[in-house]
Design brief:
Length: 408
């Protein structure tokens, strides 16, 4: 006879298993979606062929095919651009007379602004190239009521090397998606924050764990944990109102929004995280280690540095991993103080943009390949943090192996 308690245990076991499976499935689906969106720009074109978008044209004939009241866009079949037929003929009823236009496609031309050549039986309309891979033919008329034909060329798969090593990020006009300056800015900001924030965080953890009375340490610990819970936008606002003007007035720069401001703000943000985790790891070291060191004649400071800290190395490294991961993934605070200029910086006082800031600033208005490239930045961030954590964990494993060999 199964008791009610056993039935309850089985029910909760199955419930926990279902929730865990659903969470893993949802996380896997999310990562799969991001990876698909992020890799698509490097393997596929933006469209199968050339697309036409008309304005104030009721009917248009394209290569002998009549399109009545074209809605969204007219997509020309890829076979229309074989080696034997690379010329497109357009005709439609203009305001005063029948209009015609022909253009030829030059597939060998790398510059998107030179891939089309236009011909006309009469006077050519005004041809402009508002963006790369987009041509606009404007026919004369009342200002604001002109008839227009927009010709959208497909963007070929983007080079992964140009994406990772490119120096220009101009997604709107020139369709350039080089993120190397942002990769460099992210690395410099994160490691600069670590170099600035790790020493005081480690010293604070040692001070709390080894030299402060328990009652006073609990009060200070509560304050540090409160700092760790402050929203990042508050840190960013503080940096914008205090740190940025200080840098501007001290170094006499045009703007204090810079890499240095981002490093200082990130260092302040990761300090409570590293301090809390490191202090917990230091307190977990057995008291017998301290007593043995003191019995051998070591001072309390020598015991803290030579005995307690090495034995808490694993926990300290865990705090470092979480701190640098937060610095790499921080968005709002960096947006407020870094300047957000996607340039290759040469000085800590230059404006900088990180990978996360680019996604946050541009995702709201991006579309097409631009939006997919932002997903690609997300993939780069994921791989970057994964590689960083793997390196730090490998360092920790080697440290444990060295300790075991030393103890053996």
């Amino acid at each position: 006879m199964i008791s009610i308690r056993q039935k309850t245990d089985v029910l909760f076991k199955r419930l926990f298993a279902a929730v865990s499976f659903s969470s893993v499935l949802a996380l896997g689906a999310m990562l799969l979606f991001i990876f698909i969106q992020g890799t698509e720009p490097f393997v596929t074109s933006t469209a199968r062929g050339i697309r036409l978008v008309t304005e104030r044209i009721d009917a248009i004939t394209v290569n002998g095919v009549v399109y009545q009241d074209p809605g969204d866009f007219i997509e020309l079949p890829p076979e229309a651009f074989s080696s034997a037929a690379e010329t497109v003929s357009l005709s439609f009823a203009g305001r005063e007379k029948e209009q015609s236009l022909r253009f030829a496609v030059n597939r060998s031309e790398a510059d998107p602004e030179k891939q089309l050549s236009f011909f006309s039986g009469g006077e050519l309309p005004e041809i402009s190239c508002p963006e790369a891979y987009i041509y606009t033919a404007t026919y004369p008329g009342i200002p604001g009521m002109e008839q227009k034909i927009h010709i959208l060329l497909p963007e070929l798969p983007y080079s992964l090397a140009r994406f990772l090593g490119g120096l220009e990020w101009r997604p709107s006009y020139r369709k350039l998606y080089g993120i190397f300056p942002m990769i460099r800015g992210t690395i410099l900001a994160a490691f600069g924050a670590l170099l600035l924030g790790l020493p005081p965080a480690l010293l604070s953890a040692l001070f709390l764990a080894e030299f402060v009375p328990a009652q006073a340490a609990s009060v200070i610990r509560a304050g540090i944990e409160l700092l760790a819970g402050i929203p990042s936008v508050v840190y960013g606002f503080f940096g914008l109102m205090v740190i940025v003007p200080f840098i501007k007035n001290t170094f006499h720069t045009a703007s204090g929004n810079s890499l240095l401001a981002a490093v200082i703000v990130l260092a302040v943000m990761i300090l409570p995280t590293i301090t809390t985790i490191a202090e917990t790891a230091l307190r977990a070291v057995p008291q017998s280690y301290r007593e043995a060191s003191l019995a051998l004649g070591a001072s309390k400071m020598q015991t803290a540095w030579a005995v307690v800290l090495p034995h808490a190395r694993s926990g300290v490294i865990t705090g470092v991993i979480l701190g640098i991961s937060r610095a790499v993934g921080e968005t709002m605070a960096v947006i407020l103080v870094a300047g957000n200029s996607p340039q290759l910086i040469t000085s800590p006082l230059d404006s900088v943009r990180t990978l996360t800031a680019t996604v946050a600033l541009e995702m709201g208005y991006s579309s097409g390949r631009h939006s997919q490239m932002l997903f690609s930045i997300g993939v780069v961030l994921f791989i970057f943090i994964l590689a960083l954590n793997s390196v730090i964990l490998q360092i920790r494993r080697r440290g444990r192996r060295y300790e075991n060999e030393k103890a053996g």
